[in-house]
Amino acid sequence: MKVLVCISNVPDTTTKITFTDNNTQFNTNGVQFILNPYDEIALARAIELTDGGKGSVTVINVGDATTEATVRKALAIGATDAVRINAKPHDAWFVAKQIAEYVKQNPFDLILTGRESIDYNGSKVAGMVGELLDIPSVSIIKKLDATDSEATVEREIEGGKEVLTIPFPFVAGTAEGVAEPKIPNMRGIMSARTKPLTVVEPVEVKSTSEIISFETPAPRGQVTLVPADDTAKLVDLLHNEARVI
Amino acid sequence: MSVLIYAENAEGKFKKSILEAVSYAKAIADQNNTNLVALSIGDVAADELAALGKYGAEKVLNVGNDKLKNFVNQAYASVIAEAAKAQGADIVVLSNSFSGRGLAPRIGVKLEAGVADGAVALPEQNGGKFTVKKTAFSGKAFAVVELTSANKVIALTPNSYKVVETGGTAQVEDFSVETKESDFKQMLKDIVRSTDKVSLPDAEIVVSGGRGLKGPENWGMIEELAGLLGAATACSKPVSDADWRPHSEHVGQTGIAVSPNLYVAIGISGAIQHLAGVSSSKVIVVINKDAEAPFFKVADYGIVGDAFEVVPKLIAAVKDYKASA
Question: For binding FAD, which residues are annotated in this chain's numbering (chain B) (predicted)?
């Protein structure tokens, strides 16, 4: 089985998010970039599914040369080889188009993404790639098992789950539960340097969206503290002041 | 030109998050001096369909095709895109539900439309620019996105727009569309619903527990409080990582982002990743024995105290309030 895992380079989860240039640019100053946590789950499951000579795992990233550390990390974790589409990821449509074009030339049985990237949270790439390739896509899966010809997945729904079988090839966005992220070992880190990383130039894409500006959530007022033995007061405040119960 | 809202049903009913999306779509239709058409797929009773008129739908297209009874991502996306074309709709609105997240990108590609997912406010339309505010950085910020394409797809975050009753009834029409076999490759084997509980993404009140609760055996009081308040239960990442609670309850940057009216955090210190997932809650209550816990800085109300003493008292106070209400 040939698995393609689409990976993003995102700010570390502990990052305090700030903006520059009149709130039009994300302030990357001092920000540590990491492999998107949901993509780590996808990568871990891909490695498990192909373990023991049952296939290969290619990671693909749309990014400029600055993402290479993240791509190498994926190789260190256990991907077989890597592809970097040499362009800044303008938006989900741009990224999906690049990935779909690559897959048209280089077919895969299974294409995994994280359920969303933790920066723009779109969860759009999986569906767009699926549509561009005219193959099924599942937005958010919690479990993924595979035979040679098809997979069984659990898709999250409000207040429950659906169990689906889907023939290969298809695209899915993975969430917690699919696999535990893997930590690279020393052998992996050493071999990552020599594993193949192919740089591909992007295809042209007509943009459909532009980020105009950013906003940060309005700061909350001072907390009103209620004594620990006066829970009735809290209930009263929630009912009469906040009006939420 | 018109606006199309895909009204997703859950077991034949339209949930509040869908009525919010219908109200939102109606406001967009009004902005553009056009009408709102709703589309429903699957088994929904005629009066439930007509009731969408109350929220501004002028017409409801009903797809009763047997093959489309259960959700099939590819096929539903095709039907919604076909309906948009048939109605001349250039704006398609969905709820940013689990299914909506699967549909929006596919519809976007089919209609060559820019997609604004996770929208939290009405679009602004000035001087030919169409911009939508959406969540970004997992709740730590918002991005204002301009959709530059002629067609547009918007998926609305639940609990971010009010249900507005405008009072009409909608005319219900059958809408038939040819389906193609290749859209039905996925097979539904089973649907598992935990029907006794309020679903977390839809919940108006969330009661959430953290490591301060010391172990899964202590969740009884969290569930009891949630039950009394009609709330969903949630947890922090360390709790789901330790398998005290299922991953589906994990709220935070790498879990679910919620925007309830009331979020009650019990025994959660308030790491930046957790705060990201709850920052759009309208009111936050924090119960923690550590007065220095960072969560108090973003809380509206707080109690400094041991959860094992405070929560039983809070349960008693809520019972008293309910008895007197």
Answer: 211, 267-274, 288
Q: How many other β-carbons are positioned within 10 Å of the β-carbon of residue A145?
A: 13
| pLDDT of residue B196 exceeding 80 | no
A234 → closest Cβ in B146, B279, B303: B303
Question: Residue A73 pairs with which residues in a beta bridge?
Answer: none
The length of chain A is: 245
What is the tens place of the pLDDT at every residue in B60-108?
999 999 999 999 999 999 999 999 999 999 999 999 999 999 999 999 9
Pairwise CB contact (< 8 Å): A17 & B137:
yes
**pTM for the structure as a whole:** 0.94
Tell me: is residue B268 an annotated ligand-binding position.
yes
Residue in A closest to B306 by C-alpha: A228
Which residue in chain B is spatially nearest to A211 when comparing CA positions?
B145
Q: Give, for B41, the enclosing helix (H) or strand (E).
A: strand B36-41
For residue A204, being part of any structural domain is answered with yes
A242 is a domain residue: no
- Measured between alpha carbons, how far is B40 from B63 in angstroms, rounded to an integer? 6
pLDDT score of A42 more than 70: yes
Give the tens place of pLDDT for each residue, B284-319.
Answer: 999 999 999 999 999 999 999 999 999 999 999 999
Q: Does A229 touch chain B (CB under 8 A)?
A: yes
Q: Is residue B36 domain-shared with residue B98, that is, in the same domain?
A: yes
Hey, is the C-beta of A114 within 8 angstroms of any chain B C-beta?
A: no
ipTM of the complex as predicted = 0.95
For B5-28, what is each residue's pLDDT tens digit? 999 999 999 999 999 999 999 999
Residues B139 and B286 in one domain: no
Range of the domain at B56: 2-184
* B7 & B51 share domain: yes
CATH of the domain at B81: 3.40.50.620
Tell whether A22 is covered by a domain: yes
* Min Cα separation B189/chain A (Å): 5
* Tokens representing residue A5 in the block: 């895992």
Point out the residue among B103, B136, B188 whose CB comes nearest to the CB of A120.
Answer: B136
Per-window interface: A 37-66 vs B, CB < 8 A: 37-38
How many domains in chain A?
Answer: 1
Write the CA distances from A194 to A81, A86, B66, integer angstroms: 10, 20, 54
Considering the domain architecture, whether residues B275 and B154 belong to the same structural domain is answered as: no
Does residue B299 form part of some domain? yes
Say if B316 is an interface residue toward chain A (CB within 8 Å).
Answer: yes
A73: domain range?
Answer: 2-216
CB–CB of B104/A124 below 8 Å? Answer: yes
The answer to whether residue A145 neighbours chain B at the CB level (below 8 Å) is: no
